[in-house]
Amino acid sequence: MSFFTKLKSALGNSKPIDTASSSDTIEAITSDIEHEPFAIAEHNVMYSGLNELGGYYFFQTVIVGNFQVKTKKGGQLIIRGENFELTLASDSVEFESDPTDVKGRSITKIDFQIEEDDAAKITNSKLDDLVLKCKKYEIRFSAINNDKKT
Could you give phi then psi for residue 122, rounded to 5 degrees? Predict the structure, then answer.
């Protein structure tokens, strides 16, 4: 990554990295990772799942692609489905992306707090899209493989 790209990322540039410098594609990401993707954006793939620990529910996400962030202010995930919209806050205010061996690809793990009733909405409803907001970034994901309906 060039000095200017690092500088832009440190200053909160609205584009995570210059996509022209990376030949990474959504198809390459999904073929490299064995799990089924939950949602797809232009240059990122979201893998996710619900988890419960001691009566607390979490919506765990892993974003793989060109999204790179380091924050101490947390993030939000807006989930839109049939007849509902949820806004989830990240469980931790501090998180950062980890680089991978593939040029221009990072992995970002973010857990979001969720209520049990809202978790049921995600698992039992058809989802339309998800929007990740963190710092100055806003990534819109399209939900895939969700043919469930209440």
Answer: -65, -40
Choose among 38, 60, 56: nearest CA to 116.
56
Count of CA atoms in the C-beta half-sphere (13 A) of 141: 30
Helix (H) or strand (E) holding 39: strand 39-40
Dist CA 88 CA 77 (whole Å): 5
pLDDT in tens, 38-93: 999 999 999 999 999 998 999 999 999 999 999 999 999 999 998 899 999 999 99
Q: Cβ distance 29 to 64 under 8 Å?
A: yes
State if pTM tops 0.90: no
Residue ranges of alpha helices (H) inside 15-108 are 26-32
Burial readout 23-39 (b: 16 or more C-beta within 10 A, e: otherwise): ebebeebbeeeeeebbb
| CA distances in angstroms from 112 to 15, 34, 88, listed in the order given | 23, 23, 6
Distances (CA, A) of 71 to 12, 58, 74, 97: 10, 20, 6, 9
